[in-house]
Fold Alpha-hydroxy-acid oxidizing protein.
Amino acid sequence: MPVAAFNLRDFESHAFRTLPAAHWAYLNGSAADGDTASANQQSWQALRLWPRVLNDLRPGALQQTACTVAGRAMAHPLFLAPVAFQQLAHPDGERATALAAAAQGAGMVLSSQSSTPMEAVADIFAAEPDAGPLWFQLYWQGNLARSLSLVQRAQACGFQAVVLTVDAPVHGVRDAERRAGFVLPEGIRAVNLPAHPAPLGLADLLAQAVRWDDVAALQAACAALGLPLWLKGVLHPADAARAVALGVAGLIVSNHGGRTLDTTVSTAWALPQVRAAVPPGFPLLVDGGIRRGTDVFKALALGADAVLLGRPQVHALACDGALGVARMIRLLRDELSAALALCACASIADIHTSHLVPPPADNSLYA
Amino acid sequence: MPVAAFNLRDFESHAFRTLPAAHWAYLNGSAADGDTASANQQSWQALRLWPRVLNDLRPGALQQTACTVAGRAMAHPLFLAPVAFQQLAHPDGERATALAAAAQGAGMVLSSQSSTPMEAVADIFAAEPDAGPLWFQLYWQGNLARSLSLVQRAQACGFQAVVLTVDAPVHGVRDAERRAGFVLPEGIRAVNLPAHPAPLGLADLLAQAVRWDDVAALQAACAALGLPLWLKGVLHPADAARAVALGVAGLIVSNHGGRTLDTTVSTAWALPQVRAAVPPGFPLLVDGGIRRGTDVFKALALGADAVLLGRPQVHALACDGALGVARMIRLLRDELSAALALCACASIADIHTSHLVPPPADNSLYA
Amino acid sequence: MPVAAFNLRDFESHAFRTLPAAHWAYLNGSAADGDTASANQQSWQALRLWPRVLNDLRPGALQQTACTVAGRAMAHPLFLAPVAFQQLAHPDGERATALAAAAQGAGMVLSSQSSTPMEAVADIFAAEPDAGPLWFQLYWQGNLARSLSLVQRAQACGFQAVVLTVDAPVHGVRDAERRAGFVLPEGIRAVNLPAHPAPLGLADLLAQAVRWDDVAALQAACAALGLPLWLKGVLHPADAARAVALGVAGLIVSNHGGRTLDTTVSTAWALPQVRAAVPPGFPLLVDGGIRRGTDVFKALALGADAVLLGRPQVHALACDGALGVARMIRLLRDELSAALALCACASIADIHTSHLVPPPADNSLYA
Amino acid sequence: MPVAAFNLRDFESHAFRTLPAAHWAYLNGSAADGDTASANQQSWQALRLWPRVLNDLRPGALQQTACTVAGRAMAHPLFLAPVAFQQLAHPDGERATALAAAAQGAGMVLSSQSSTPMEAVADIFAAEPDAGPLWFQLYWQGNLARSLSLVQRAQACGFQAVVLTVDAPVHGVRDAERRAGFVLPEGIRAVNLPAHPAPLGLADLLAQAVRWDDVAALQAACAALGLPLWLKGVLHPADAARAVALGVAGLIVSNHGGRTLDTTVSTAWALPQVRAAVPPGFPLLVDGGIRRGTDVFKALALGADAVLLGRPQVHALACDGALGVARMIRLLRDELSAALALCACASIADIHTSHLVPPPADNSLYA
């Protein structure tokens, strides 16, 4: 019997009651005081829609939410964000989220810390003709050779792009996680990565952290493989411009869901700054705090091509496995449909910044 | 024994305790997180009055709240907004609200989803010599012929204007309603409309949604009938200007009480934008969040000719039927009287934008 | 045994527990939702002090809070505001507040709705050599003759100025008072006024409300008597300028403690606007929401010559009669002393607008 | 068994439960309503970080938090602020905080109201080769001779600078302290000062308060002793400029933790104003509300060379004595390390104002 969920927050309430406290602390926790995790949500919600009326909505109908992301047609602009160790949320783990994403036409970015072999996930997507994009998230493995070996294995089994995370050279101040005494339970681990002999100290982490010259080398290698390289975790226009100059395929505006550094700018604030710094049409995704169809609409109005969902997929997964995640995606897509109609947009392409009231220029709402 | 109510919010508290939960969820519910429903109220309250003193108030006296709306004299600038299925709130339904409105000189806009025959409502207004305007709210019926047939029936029994709702091509994300499992109880239905064979799906809704060319055709037809056509649900100045160009009689600035799309601009924010886009003297009404006489005063200071009351009429109706609604109207009118005197305005015509502190130009208070 | 009170808010907590609910509703209540009553307090508190250091404080010492108000030397810039029917708070009523004010060197403005004969209050002030100013608050009595008769009686027994209230032509929307069913108890009434045959209706109130030409006539009459005339309840610079042009002695910036019209501008917001509209050195007082010595300091920094205390005197009176009011005045004076020293001001004359951070010019903090 | 503390606020929660109420009221209390104490914390937190990515972090590693304060190398930019009577928090008092500071390489400013002989503290620092700076806080002793005698004694036993507090000519309105009836318990006193015969009254306090000419004289005397003189408690740029002109070694931007004057500007707001008023490179420290590594990062981005910790040292001291304070320092340093890495700063020197979103220029966030 599936949980009663009428919106994404309902899944969160159920998951909180369902999951062991330490798993919840890891999966849902955020850095320090949780200010950024909270501000991400509030910033989307605080943006005001300025709806239009009476436009012709007939062209929309079933194709209303259809869109193109980096040249690929999708049924809607929703991706599952990379989330590590999904077996913590549900025994089916990444298999369940992949089934749901593939069935619903959502994109999926598999974490390199997946608790499920990447090949199993790729097989699920391969079996679904209408599946969306399947991408592989990469944590830099200390050097190019090790990183590339992972990338090549992902490409071999069917992943279509690489998403390099650049905002997490260290783990972040995860008070909730430490307070709960979270450790990975027996049997759950990053099965696609070589086992670490021991956790790295700060000096080692800093020494191995990915750098601009690593990105350049990886970009060249990916180009040689014909594999698009995305960077995830860019918030500053200067970094965005530098990444574009290196030839990356796209950027994901993200603050890691507030899990690494607290009190950063919200992604709703950063997105238009980044959009202004990249060429017209350059592929941009955004994550962090998306909970409503109106949030998706606003992200697109501010220049994103699609959005990624992190915690909501975990919440739904914890509640009902693949079925929960599928319902979560469907709920959000339906809300987006309603938002489009109620703003008199026949399609995603009709969304425009003028559908938002301009926020104050002086940052007084920058939370 | 009538409920103890000293202001409009008191009726709300009583109604919440009185009504079945599912009826409350339908009647008082709003879209998604209720952000717009709440912001509507807060935005009026946040506006600051800058009172004047010592003007001559003698001319006011009993005619103090008298006003003219679209050329018609009224005792005060209060209308009952269209609310569907009022028998959900009280067995007397629309008969009760009509009795109260007529007795108090308020205008009334009957919903096309009235649970009472429109003729019965018209008869009540016809029997009261001092009744205010009686208008008919129209949901587009898929084509001009069906829509016009409803309009002609309304005109025939005495309705004096048509109010076409343009902000609800789809139903909105009504979480509370769905969570409560609301369905229309046996015996309550839209008696003035043909029974729907089955609820429409999204594709059909979008295909049948009213469009600008429909408005043009309806406007021409109404003009031929000598019936003023208003549009309800306009928030954007560009849409307002386009509607004016089509020759409509007036506009109602509304976000449907926050029941269709959440996180839209509040009506207090949108009203002056719309006022600036229409010709001087063009009839404008506004609804959403009006709970105090000072709210009415502020709406008029920002350019409205009158205001409409949605949920407050339902609350009062649920408490005490016609008597409750009449008391609600009277309370609000008395509060408006006090506000006029305390701003040293002898009459409605003395209300001016300079009675408000200009809100910040940068939208930092746009909630 | 006096109540334990370490600041003005402590008296409020005690009084709330002490007074009958209906008396509390009348004495402490405010108009409508209490937004203005609350904003008055918050607006003072929200202003930020920008302290200086290391100035020579020796000249200050005991004369630190000494000041001059409209040409008269005072030990400190504190007045008791006019409050009606003080026997509702304590059997000793206005006798107690007068004893406290006289003993502490505070000014006092006796309400024309005093429950104690004005002569008794005047006698108390006459008996105290170091007493501050004693003024008489006047509600317009419908015409000049009746008003003047009251003024002359006040002058005869020793009152030194008249304060005409101009912001209360009607009573205001006092929900709390009506909900509590407040009526004046047997034995408490406005003993200095002729008994009203019956409460006046709105039409009569508006017809008798004081007007600019009445003020001109009263000013001429007071000038002939050598009695300074103040206006209380001015918020708008245009009204202030007009009053100055009529020759009044001073103005009290006030919104009646939020008891008449709700959601007006706060007095902290209005004060600098009024100061900018009157000649340099023109006497200005302010009331509404003053609870701390820092509030007094801020009011003086924004251009007030002194402040008046309304509810705090009632709270202290209800707690401990004259002793309570005396302690309240002393507490506030001591807090003002500390604020002066901690801003490195040797005296009141050293207070300057530059001791405040300029609030935003765009009204975004205008609550 | 040490308390479970994962961040600085955890120590506060434990200390609140551990300390006698009156000690808590004194140690943690603030002036009046605690508005400034609270705003200090909120203002740091409200500042938004704008992180960069992918810079080379290898140079950082173990020397990542190393910095130079007024010419002296330190392992990190953390100081313990002067706090009086630390035996109120823990029997080990200042010995414990000194042990912790010395072991962790933090600077320490010993209060002249230390409950421990200054020589004992100096010995602890002398015994630790990697100890940070040890400074002596001075309350003006009424005249230069008495003040200098204290300074010379401090220099003799090893203190390396003098910090003159200039923001506390009087005690402040400490409601919580008075409500709790706090008095120094038997056996705890300012052992380095001559016993006061009796508490001073206001007139005496004002007469003895330190003045600009005293600072000039003290500065000359300290220069002769080769001892740097800092001023603590400066918030206004004009005062900062004047102090610089007198030749002081550095300034501490402080509002005394909100313990003297309530509703002052927060130190996060004042810091950049003061930085703009002093020469480039002029030593500036700041305290008040620092609770997170990101707060330290922000303070440095706004122009501070280091920060001081007041209440957090008391909380940790109350919990676990020297061990608690050492853990508190270490936690904060680790958080600063994480913030550096996550903003892609290899070292303190890489921190720049551009890592912060500019706050609104109009003070609308000045709380």
About this structure: DSSP finds 13 helices and ten strands in chain B.
